[in-house]
Amino acid sequence: MKKILLVEDEKAIRNVLKNILKEESDSYVVEESENGLDAYNKIKETEYDLIISDIKMPKMEGTELLKKTLEIYPNTTFLMISGHGDIETAVDAIKLGAFDYISKPPDLNRLLNSVRNGLQRKDLVSENTALNTENKILKKKVQKRYQMIGNSEELKNIQSIIDKVAETDARVLITGQNGTGKELVAHSIHEKSDRNKLPFVEVNCAAIPSELIESELFGHMKGSFTGAVKDKPGKFELAHKGTLFLDEVGDMSLSAQAKVLRALQENKINRVGAEKEINVDVRVLAATNKNLKEEIKNGKFREDLFHRLSVIEIQVPSLNERKDDIPILVNHFLKIIAEEQGNTEKEINQDAIKKLQNFDWTGNIRELRNVVERLIILGENPITKKDVEQFVLK
After folding, report:
1. Same-domain check for residues 299 and 335
2. For the chain, does the N or the C end have fewer beta carbons within 10 angstroms?
């Protein structure tokens, strides 16, 4: 049901407009006010989908009602009705935020069309407001998910580099063992950059077959190869004006490397099977667990691409190199895993944490998270040294 408030000091006009609106749709619930002050008192109690208001009225004029209403409900849709002598005032009302105005005597078809458009506009505004709220919540969740946790000097040094490089468009090569948090570094750079309101597009180069990596990165045209049933944009296009993260870039084929190098040099790409070039504005971050200089010596990675990607290099330390962060990380994982599972957060004894600090973390932070989840499921509350010895140190 759509709630409409009709504000008009002439009863005859109110009756005509009310009857027309009711005939237009059974979903319209029409209320009336004979002056602006009465309307304002109703508006303070109820949010209306549409307000149709005269301009010249006793006690409070339509423009004053418009101003006061928009202070309470900024997205209210107002349709103003004006006499011939009020056209200038009506135009001013549009500037103040009214959706439309209709001259008296009103053209009924134009009035109904404006009512329909106004209600549609209200729905769109409501949807956009809801989407913006959802996006803000989602963004907070993403930021929380990719939060870098710890107070060690090693982590502080990385965060200092991130703060400096984020405000530039410099390409960054992030290196380190599997599970150290290279993806977190990439997300942090993006979130602190001027591109943070635009896409962060991730490509796991190791997970895509070599024969498909070019299509994945640059897109393809319909019919360009078997299975190409429609045109498809690639990751470079999807990341336009945003950030492209090439994870496990050391696993990319030499053919794809050559095309990536050209894209970085010229800021242009070609979809597979297309002749037309596409301009792209993309900030590229790359990560690898391989020694790319060794890969270059072995002919598996292009040296010119390495130099393009590694304007800034960030080496992410292993967990064994930042064991001072383990207490903070453990408590962080205890909290977020409990939230994910909908359970009460468990505590952990200090002797259990010390035991974890003495462990050899070959799987790094990813392994630590798995261990904490195992202790939550199998251990007591609080988690003890005995739980660590029983379920971890075997």
Report:
1. no
2. C
